[in-house]
Amino acid sequence: MLLQSLIPYATLAACVSGYVVNNGTDCYLYPESLTHFGQPVDDTPSVVQAFELCGTNGTVIFTNHTFHMDQVMNTTNLANCDVEIIGELLWSTNIPYWLSHSINVGLQNQSTAWLFGGTNVTMTGGGSFNGNGQTWYTQNRNNGNEPGRPISITFFNSTNLFVDNISIIQPQFWATFVTYSTNVTMTNIYVNATSNDEWGTVNTDGSDTWNSHDIYMANWTVQNGDDCIAAKGNTTKLHVKNATCYGGGGHDDWDVRTIGSMDGGYIKTWQGVHQGASGNGDGGGGGSGIIRNITFRNFEVTNVNLPIQISQCIYSETIGADTCETSKMNISDVTFENFTGTSRYNVAASLHCAGVHHCRDIYFQNVNIKSVNETLGLPLFNTTLQKEEFQCANIVNQNTTSGVPCNHWAPDNYGQSPSMNVQ
Ligand SMILES: *[C@@H]1O[C@H](CO)[C@@H](O)[C@H](O)[C@H]1NC(C)=O
Ligand SMILES: *[C@@H]1O[C@H](CO)[C@@H](O)[C@H](O)[C@H]1NC(C)=O
Ligand SMILES: *[C@@H]1O[C@H](CO)[C@@H](O)[C@H](O)[C@H]1NC(C)=O
Ligand SMILES: *[C@@H]1O[C@H](CO)[C@@H](O)[C@H](O)[C@H]1NC(C)=O
Ligand SMILES: *[C@@H]1O[C@H](CO)[C@@H](O)[C@H](O)[C@H]1NC(C)=O
Ligand SMILES: *[C@@H]1O[C@H](CO)[C@@H](O)[C@H](O)[C@H]1NC(C)=O
Ligand SMILES: *[C@@H]1O[C@H](CO)[C@@H](O)[C@H](O)[C@H]1NC(C)=O
Ligand SMILES: *[C@@H]1O[C@H](CO)[C@@H](O)[C@H](O)[C@H]1NC(C)=O
Ligand SMILES: *[C@@H]1O[C@H](CO)[C@@H](O)[C@H](O)[C@H]1NC(C)=O
Ligand SMILES: *[C@@H]1O[C@H](CO)[C@@H](O)[C@H](O)[C@H]1NC(C)=O
Ligand SMILES: *[C@@H]1O[C@H](CO)[C@@H](O)[C@H](O)[C@H]1NC(C)=O
Ligand SMILES: *[C@@H]1O[C@H](CO)[C@@H](O)[C@H](O)[C@H]1NC(C)=O
């Protein structure tokens, strides 16, 4: 019995194009290319088989080789399973295949290449994912939220999940997504989406969370063209510590450095009226909800377009000024603490809350941001303003306890961030 199972599965059954060595509870994965003179062959059937064999009370090891990921994978309902990724998982660039087969994840018409999850599961090993994203960045031409463009891996329906020491290079879309999960730890994660042509890496978020609770993320390095770490609806108890984010949209919590990014720490919500019907996340609004008890602490910002922002109509600034005042999202108890560094323009902070739902208990503690030009002793381009702007609108405690040195009205037309000094 043991002897037989030590033989690669491919030699046992012709219908399985797998290369899994299974001794007891351990499944060692080897790529098909090793037995095909180096030619790439789809390894997803053997990966799925390894999880069938060892996904409960077992260990799945991706050995130190390159695995070709040519099809979607659904490896959910794992239990007490340790996944060690030592090699590289390389996704195919068959765009028509992915556009029609990626697994829907239930949010904004979005989908994933790998739906993964279970109870008491770990994923470690120092290996890497390579989404072959350049093909996606080039074909997507800076469009937002292309339906079918897959998230590299979605951690779904998971409890007690521990992900450590994994790199995600050139993700196709968001690198990771955490949904319907509780007690998730993701540490020592490296994400790098860099385009080598004129098209950007739109939507290559480091991580998004949705309908998930008790999440701890620490020691992240993210270079991308969008959010570093973003909390979406029904996220509670998300704690982010020590993230370094280059070039993207920024984000959340403790000990964060954002460098050359659009934003530092920010909260954005939809307006209160529905707009656009695309369903892919670019149109929306009309919903309601609560955002509260958020602390952004120890941020170092370097040349960031807009280091601190609250906007309640971030995608609808073009459809008329009044929509911003309609948001039914209620924001309260938000503290920005220990912010240092530089803004690219002369706006350090812009806090625009909805006219119908002013923000309560907004606090700045030790926020010290200067525009890059000010630090260089240069006049501020195209403006007579020498001082940093702190813009406020509809903040209940703005002139009393907030600590925000509000000196201008916050306009509602920045979108993600300003693109020049303001007058
Ligand atoms: C399976 O093989 C690995 C590596 O050769 C070894 O470390 C492990 O102890 C083996 N497990 C069993 C149950 O034989
Ligand atoms: C997995 O381990 C648990 C606890 O040891 C045990 O109750 C369960 O029966 C095992 N499941 C399988 C499929 O071996
Ligand atoms: C994986 O193999 C590469 C060479 O192909 C080697 O440099 C690296 O150290 C190996 N990693 C591990 C963990 O053995
Ligand atoms: C994933 O596989 C599970 C079985 O393990 C199945 O119940 C579920 O419907 C599948 N999900 C999707 C989206 O295919
Ligand atoms: C998960 O681990 C906990 C603590 O070790 C254990 O009580 C529980 O039974 C495990 N769950 C499953 C599905 O094995
Ligand atoms: C979610 O996981 C639980 C086990 O924790 C399982 O019973 C349930 O079927 C899973 N749901 C889905 C949709 O996979
Ligand atoms: C949360 O998950 C971790 C593994 O990352 C585990 O050690 C811990 O026991 C879990 N906490 C609870 C309350 O189950
Ligand atoms: C990301 O990758 C690009 C291109 O390989 C490289 O130049 C850059 O240094 C990397 N960023 C980080 C933070 O490692
Ligand atoms: C973060 O990285 C530092 C330095 O490598 C390490 O000492 C620390 O244990 C890591 N933290 C976590 C939560 O992994
Ligand atoms: C923060 O995380 C980086 C990796 O992203 C690590 O090199 C560094 O040591 C960590 N710092 C601390 C204080 O844990
Ligand atoms: C949040 O959870 C509630 C209750 O389960 C649900 O009705 C609502 O649609 C969820 N909101 C989002 C944005 O997922
Ligand atoms: C705010 O969040 C912190 C950290 O999770 C928690 O300890 C505290 O009880 C929360 N406060 C309120 C008012 O919910």
Topology at a glance:
Blueprint: H1 2-6, E1 20-23, E2 26-29, H2 44-54, E3 56-62, E4 66-69, E5 73-85, E6 88-91, H3 95-101, E7 103-104, E8 111-112, E9 114-124, E10 128-130, H4 133-140, E11 150-151, E12 153-156, E13 159-169, E14 176-179, E15 182-192, E16 207-210, E17 212-223, E18 227-231, E19 235-246, E20 250-251, E21 254-259, E22 263-268, E23 288-304, E24 306-311, E25 328-343, E26 347-352, E27 360-371, H5 372-375, E28 389-393, E29 408-409
Parallel strand pairs: 2-3, 3-5, 4-6, 5-9, 6-10, 8-11, 9-12, 9-13, 10-13, 12-14, 13-15, 14-16, 15-17, 16-18, 17-19, 18-20, 19-21, 21-23, 22-24, 23-25, 24-26, 25-27, 26-28, 28-29
Antiparallel strand pairs: 1-2, 7-8
Bound molecules: 2-acetamido-2-deoxy-beta-D-glucopyranose (NAG) (12 copies).
Q: What's the CATH H-level homologous superfamily of the domain at 262-423?
A: Single-stranded right-handed beta-helix, Pectin lyase-like
CATH topology of the domain at 262-423: Pectate Lyase C-like
Shape: elongated
The level of helicity is under 10%
- How would a crystallographer describe the biggest sheet? 21 strands, mixed
Q: Give the CA-CA distance, first to last residue.
A: 78 Å
- Helical segment count: 5
CATH 2nd-level architecture of the domain at 262-423: 3 Solenoid
Q: Give a list of the ligands.
A: 2-acetamido-2-deoxy-beta-D-glucopyranose
Query: How big is the Rg?
Result: 23 Å
The CATH class of the domain at 262-423 is identified as Mainly Beta
The secondary-structure class comes to: mainly beta
Mean pLDDT: 87
SS elements, strand count: 29
* Percentage of residues in strands: over 45%
Q: List low-pLDDT spans.
A: 1-17, 249-253
